[in-house]
């Protein structure tokens, strides 16, 4: 079967909406005259590889008409430069400073093992500081590595075609002077426009509404598809990018391509053209779109949407405003004093139990960093417990405070909804006896705390990663967030923008938004936990606030339960 007769399922869908070319030719303007002077070349790509697949992206680049300024093979790319060439970070840093390079495309083998984590961060920082987008195709990885890539402004893709399409798009379309508007979707057929708009919306791109202009989806109007319409679509203000699908064939498609090129030359709006013909050998694609430095040309709607998402994410990264939580030196000093006092305490059969903090100590640690906890008192007698409950106000919560205990709730050492002095006395004795039966020795005491009602339970925690150091995790669902797998991760340090982006990545975010939860306070708590992670990274193995109750807008957050483990020495 000839190659030109093979169609993807996506192209088949578009083909069903394709009008007869003859029906449109009378409305296609003459091809714009070609300038006597050759058009300036688009910024080229640099290719960096750490595996044995250098040839494939080079061949794909040639097939797609993407110019490659240079390529470097980094061998294993290990931290000590065990390969025959430069390290991955050195290669990226060199290309980031090279003239004529618009973006860097990298093929990385086994990103979680062969490439040193800090080398990856150095490479990303070098590319970002030089305004050279870095696009990575990699095998392996995990949630932490994915988080490092996102927060460093790196685009991760799933194939050689996406690698080159995204990198070429980012090279052609540098960061605009302001945040880009929505993606304007158009096509020479209404069905193609609808399909493209649906794909863009599902990818999370802001899409211009169909009623934003009379010529939306250039196949829907009586005069749509003309060169004048294409020029107007590109010149109309408000869009951050124009994506136009060409579903026609023959002379009609060729002249539509020429109209797109002319519009791109006259407009500052980035234009991506999707050539939906199955062959890709036609004059309109090979000699007009691919040779235009102003146009980003794609062969599939999916890759066009992936590249557009990469462009918008890159703009979002470049326009971020770094704002780390203020460094409080006294908080760090006080926190270390609390940690030093937490090495003793409970003596459980598990020797690791002594490498943690009690509930009372974790709450002290939270308050040192300005994280709110319920009003509470640590008591050591039933009489004292009754007085504390009366001072705090009923109903109250009672918890056994035991060093090294991962969670008082999971150990059955929490009592809630206590409403009277007699219940306080009864539960105080029961908690002390229960802790003894489970193998604990001397307790710090029992925490008598305010019972918090309303709000949504979340969790914020610290995880130590051997490759990157302390990482911060946030999720919805309290102690069950990680079990459900709905968490977002960032490696410290990160800024307030990334803290808010973490919340946007949660699938269960609607549980917070529909409840009117104080998302700004939650993002601020994430930053405060990050400050703790940076200050105590050498001694703190894990730290969990679960649940962290997020109250209504303006109500802030309250840490209801917290646990910590220390690094073994």
Automatic annotation (TrEMBL):
Organism (species): Catenulispora yoronensis
Keywords from UniProt, A to Z, are: ATP-binding, Ligase, Nucleotide-binding
Q: Is Cell membrane one of the keywords UniProt gives this record?
A: no
Q: Where is the composition biased (Polar residues)?
A: 1-12
Q: Does the keyword Cytoplasm apply?
A: no
- Annotated region Disordered: the residues are 1-41
Bias type Basic residues, positions: 14-29
Q: From the Swiss-Prot or TrEMBL record, give the protein name.
A: ATP-grasp domain-containing protein
Domain ATP-grasp intervals: 363-416
């Amino acid at each position: 079967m000839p190659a030109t007769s093979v169609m993807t399922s996506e192209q088949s869908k578009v083909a069903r909406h394709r009008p007869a070319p003859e029906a449109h030719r009378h409305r296609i303007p003459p091809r714009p005259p070609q300038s006597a002077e050759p058009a300036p070349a688009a910024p080229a790509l640099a290719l960096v590889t750490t595996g044995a697949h250098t040839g494939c992206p080079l061949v794909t680049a040639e097939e797609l008409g993407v110019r490659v300024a240079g390529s470097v093979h980094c061998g294993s790319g290990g931290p000590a430069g065990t390969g025959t060439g430069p390290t991955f970070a050195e290669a990226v840093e060199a290309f980031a400073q090279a003239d004529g390079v618009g973006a860097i495309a990298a093929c990385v083998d086994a990103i979680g093992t062969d490439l040193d984590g800090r080398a990856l961060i150095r490479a990303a920082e070098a590319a970002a500081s030089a305004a050279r987008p870095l696009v990575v195709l990699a095998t392996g990885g995990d949630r932490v590595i994915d988080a490092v890539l996102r927060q460093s402004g790196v685009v991760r893709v799933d194939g050689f075609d996406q690698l080159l399409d995204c990198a070429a798009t980012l090279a052609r379309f540098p960061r605009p002077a302001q945040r880009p508007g929505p993606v304007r979707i158009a096509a020479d057929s209404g069905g193609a426009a609808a399909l493209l708009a649906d794909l863009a919306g599902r990818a999370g791109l802001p899409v211009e509404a169909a009623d934003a202009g009379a010529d939306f989806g250039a196949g829907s109007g009586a005069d749509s598809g003309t060169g004048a319409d294409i020029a107007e679509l590109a010149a109309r203000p408000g869009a951050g990018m124009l994506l136009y699908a060409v579903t026609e064939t023959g002379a009609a498609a060729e002249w539509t391509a020429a109209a797109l090129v002319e519009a791109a030359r006259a407009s500052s709006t980035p234009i991506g053209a999707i050539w939906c013909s199955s062959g890709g050998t036609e004059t309109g694609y090979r000699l007009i779109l691919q040779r235009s430095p102003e146009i980003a040309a794609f062969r599939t709607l999916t890759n066009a949407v992936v590249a557009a998402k990469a462009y918008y994410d890159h703009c979002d990264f470049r326009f971020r405003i770094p704002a780390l939580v203020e460094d409080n030196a006294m908080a760090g000093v006080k926190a270390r004093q609390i940690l030093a006092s937490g090495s003793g305490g409970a003596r459980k059969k598990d020797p690791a139990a002594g490498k943690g903090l009690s509930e009372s100590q974790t709450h002290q640690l939270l308050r040192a960093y300005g994280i709110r906890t319920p009003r509470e008192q640590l008591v050591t007698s039933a009489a004292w417990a009754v007085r504390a409950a009366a001072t705090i106000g009923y109903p109250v919560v009672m918890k056994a405070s035991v060093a090294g205990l991962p969670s008082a709730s999971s150990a059955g050492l929490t009592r809630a909804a206590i409403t009277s002095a007699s219940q306080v006395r009864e539960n105080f004795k029961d908690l002390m006896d229960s802790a003894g039966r489970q193998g604990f020795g001397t307790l710090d005491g029992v925490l008598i705390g305010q019972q918090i009602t309303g709000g949504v339970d979340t969790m914020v925690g610290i995880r130590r990663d051997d490759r990157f150091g302390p990482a911060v995790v946030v999720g919805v669902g309290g102690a069950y967030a990680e079990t459900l797998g709905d968490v977002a991760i960032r490696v410290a340090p990160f800024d307030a923008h990334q803290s808010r982006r973490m919340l946007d990545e949660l699938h269960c975010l609607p549980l917070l938004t529909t409840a009117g939860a104080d998302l700004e306070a939650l993002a601020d708590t994430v930053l405060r936990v990050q400050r703790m992670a940076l200050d105590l990274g050498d001694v703190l193995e894990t730290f969990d606030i679960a649940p962290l109750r997020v109250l209504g807008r303006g109500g802030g957050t309250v840490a209801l339960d917290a646990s910590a483990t220390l690094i073994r020495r």
